[in-house]
Amino acid sequence: MLEIKNLHARIADSGIEIIRGLNLTVKAGEVAAIMGPNGSGKSTLSYILAGRDDYEVTEGEILYNGESILEMDPAERAAKGIFLAFQYPMEIPGVATMEFLKVAMNSQRKARGEEPLKIPDFLKRVKEAAASLDMDINMLKRPVNVGFSGGEKKRAEILQMKLLEPQLCVLDETDSGLDIDALKIVSDGVNALRSPDRAVVVITHYQRLLDHIVPDTVHVLYKGQVIKSGDKSLALELEENGYAGIIEEAA
Amino acid sequence: MNMRAEIQRTPAEAALVDAFGERLSLLPGDGAIMVKRDDAIEQVKAGLPTRRVESWHYTDLRRLLANVPAFDASVKAKSVAPLIEGSTVLSLANGVSQAVSSIEGVTLQRLADKLTDGSYAAALVTYGTDDAIGAINTAFVADGYFVDIEAGVQLDKPVELQNLQAGGQSHVRLPVRVGAGAKATIVERQTGEGAGLVSSVSQLLVGDDAEVLWLIVQDQPETATHLAQFKAELGKNAKLTLFVMNAGGKLVRQEVIVKASGEGADFKLRGVNLLAGDSHVDVTMVLDHAVPHTSSTEVVRNVVTGRAKGVFQGRINVHQIAQKTDARMACNTLLLSDDGEFSTKPELEIFADDVACGHGATVTEIDHNHLFYLMARGIDEKSARGLLIRAFLAEVIEELEDESVVDPLEELLSNWFATHG
Asked: N or C terminus of chain A with fewer C-beta within 10 Å?
């Protein structure tokens, strides 16, 4: 579903190269964990997948379902089914959450040539998704993420993911800022989305999240490259021994 | 004869002076009023204010007022439905009032009658020597409505004062008195067609414990010159919310001159200025906190597109005796084009020592992070920008809470963006 080939990317403003020849393949149905020390390019990778224009791809290719996405803007990528759950979800004053959800869902439907959702159908979906994440529906009357705690923001991201039903879910440090109960709820939310035709990329610093969202593959990112791939045991090994050994081994 | 002044006069100044000579015999008023008109035209003859006059620094009227159309009695102003459904409408068609129907608890008069019999003479005043709008208006004002809401009357329907123009010149005044403990919503609608010159002066007295919501909605055509002044004085525990929306006009100056004269008075100014094309829109406020224990907040939000230029000047004078004044002012601008401009000038003059006063101003572009976030959810760039711009403005409008007011204002926003977005 996702094929990243020899990807090089830099910060558009400063020209500093962050991703330096990254290769990664994620198949449909797979849950892939991306781990790595701070500054290894994990979040950059997630932004590049979503199409943030602060980064410039200088070399290589990103294929999604066999099609290059490099020329697509973030909205086009989202409509094709790519979803990024942000590490730091944005607060947007003045934009009501419900309105935002409705516009987002209907924009994607429109891009796919589907009819807009009828209001009762939309409300039913939102209520069900909120209930499954143990979210108070009244929170959604507020502007997008405004006044939400860190944990509430993360839940709101997963709520959006549930409603938008993407094919490729990229979770950027979704566990940060979550207490253990919230972590469980959010993980259950992600696990419920696991399906043979959907892929999940979990970017995380810690093994903790991977106890709940058990990955099929684990990839270690260091200095903008995948330096080692393995199964879930690789994550446990990292938890035990840290990154130093693997970095040395790769060098 | 002052030859030098004659030679230096701009075409616009000359046109105003000439028009006064031609109109004089048609202007209503007794001796006292005619003297005031003469004084006023002398002020115009002395020259329109330039950027060297501090209060006109960002709006050089002498340079910007390029076109003064002739009076045109043949044009007919189109009527419009009131902004808020069910309002009592008092309309002025090209500066001329209609026969008035009565409202219970309210005295309505055509201003032409009050000018003719001279009973309006005392109120026909200008605001200092730099008051070009007051001077032009005093010289030419021929009509308007006088609205007197009796003490204790709670108007259940808004009153809409419509100033409809269709080109040529129109000069009107809208004096409104709201008695003690009364409550009213007044809509001042400034709209029309054609390249007209409009001067409009509103004078509001808010009695003790009275509560007024006053909405100025200006959406003149892109060719019109709109010179407007809103003056208000607030009694004890009086509450005034003034909402100003500018969504049109080529050259617009809206002055807001408010005096909190009674303890416990509260003034709120909320403004939305939508600037497009090569328009020049100026909102200038002078607010006096003249007694202790009064409060005010001002929030002005602007969106600038095209080559438009915007101005907000906010001057707050806190008098020496006005202890415990609480005044907060904010002006935020979204600059959506490289060729647009916005100038903000907050001025606080504080002579009391126990007050809480503050101001803030920002000029920004659309937040890049917000845009990315919305687009990452599948919302195309144009729609995402639209959502963010409207959110920026909606915060001010939604504060009015009452749906019957908020909905039509948001509809005006939508219409503006449909044309200029």
From this structure: C
**Under an 8 A CB cutoff, do B379 and A89 touch?**
no
Q: Looking at chain B, how many residues does it have?
A: 421
Nearest to A103 by CA among A80, A126, A128: A126
CATH level 3 topology of A2-92+166-250:
Rossmann fold (3.40.50)
Residue A74 to chain B, least CA–CA distance (Å): 5
Question: B375 vs A75: CB contact, 8 Å cut-off?
Answer: yes
Q: How many Cα atoms sit within 13 Å of B283 on the Cβ side?
A: 28
* Closest among A6, A20, A35, A8 to A217, alpha carbons compared: A35
Burial class of residue B311, CB neighbours in 10 A (0-12, 13-18, 19+): buried
Query: Which tokens in the block code for residue B238?
Result: 């009086």
Chain B contacts of A160, Cβ < 8 Å?
377
Q: Which residues pair with B282 in a beta bridge?
A: B253, B311
Output the pLDDT for position B74: 84
Band (B76; pLDDT cuts 50, 70, 90): confident
d(CA A145, CA A161): 15
Residue ranges in chain A assigned as alpha helix (H): 42-50, 74-79, 97-111, 119-132, 150-164, 180-193, 208-212, 232-241, 244-250
- pLDDT tier at A5, thresholds 50, 70, 90: very high
What's the whole-number mean pLDDT along residues B24-45?
A: 95
Give the pLDDT score at A181.
Answer: 86
Q: Residues B9-30: what's their mean pLDDT? A: 94
Domain residue ranges of chain A, discontinuous segments joined by + = 2-92+166-250
Parallel/antiparallel/unpaired status of strands B211-218 and B239-246: parallel
- For B:388-417, CB contacts with A below 8 A are 388, 390-392, 394-395
* pLDDT value at residue B8: 82
DSSP summary character for residue A128: H
Q: Answer whether A89 sits within 8 Å of B390, measured CB to CB.
A: no
Lowest mean pLDDT among A8-22, B91-105, B306-320, B344-358: B91-105
For residue B7, what pLDDT band results from cuts at 50, 70 and 90? low
ipTM over 0.90? The verdict is yes
pTM comes to: 0.87
Instruction: Report helix angle B403-420 to B381-398, nearest 10.
Output: 150
Interface of A with B (CB under 8 A): 50-54, 73-75, 77-79, 83-84, 86, 89-90, 92-95, 99-100, 103-104, 107-108, 111, 143-144, 160, 164
Share of chain B above pLDDT 90, in %: 91
Q: Annotate A164-229 with three-state secondary structure.
A: HCCCEEEEECCCCCCCHHHHHHHHHHHHHHCCCCCEEEEEECCCHHHHHCCCCEEEEEECCEEEEE
Count CB atoms within 10 A of the CB of residue A148: 19
Q: C-alpha dihedral over B201, B207, B211, B215, to 10 degrees?
A: 0
Task: Locate the DSSP E strands across B251-355.
Answer: 251-260, 266-275, 280-289, 295-304, 309-318, 326-335, 341-350
Output Rg (C-alpha) for chain A, integer angstroms. 18
Nearest to B63 by CA among B52, B50, B54: B50
Looking only at the bridges linking them, the beta strands covering A143-144 and A92-96 are: antiparallel
Cα–Cα–Cα angle for B115, B120, B122, nearest 5°?
135
Q: Is a pLDDT exceeding 60 seen at residue B4?
A: no
Of the pLDDT bands very low, low, confident and very high (cuts 50, 70, 90), residue A94 is confident
